[in-house]
TrEMBL record:
Keyword Ribosomal protein: yes
Basic residues composition-biased segments: 1-16
Alphabetized UniProt keyword annotations: Ribonucleoprotein, Ribosomal protein
Single biological process term from Gene Ontology: translation
Protein name as it appears in the record: Large ribosomal subunit protein bL35
Family designation: Belongs to the bacterial ribosomal protein bL35 family.
Lineage: Bacteria, Pseudomonadati, Pseudomonadota, Betaproteobacteria, Burkholderiales
Region listing for Disordered, in residue ranges: 1-24
GO CC, any one term: cytosolic large ribosomal subunit
Organism of derivation: Aquabacterium soli
InterPro entries: Ribosomal_bL35, Ribosomal_bL35-like, Ribosomal_bL35_CS, Ribosomal_bL35_sf
PANTHER family reported in the protein's UniProt record: 54S RIBOSOMAL PROTEIN BL35M, LARGE RIBOSOMAL SUBUNIT PROTEIN BL35M
Origin superkingdom: Bacteria
Cited SUPFAM superfamilies: L35p-like (SSF143034)
Amino acid sequence: MPKMKTKSSAKKRFRVRPGGTVKRGHAFKRHILTKKSTKTKRQLRGAANVHETNLGHVAQMLPFAGL
């Protein structure tokens, strides 16, 4: 059997919190920010949780995260 590997893209994007929820960043906050309103950019600050319907996919990409 080959070794299980963590997806490198996933380990850069997600962090597992102590309660078992998964933290993620918001999309649409990287570039082309001049045409976005201040309100939109402010609401994209901070972290969000991965939705429970997507936790299975994240768990497959992060096999050693304990999800």
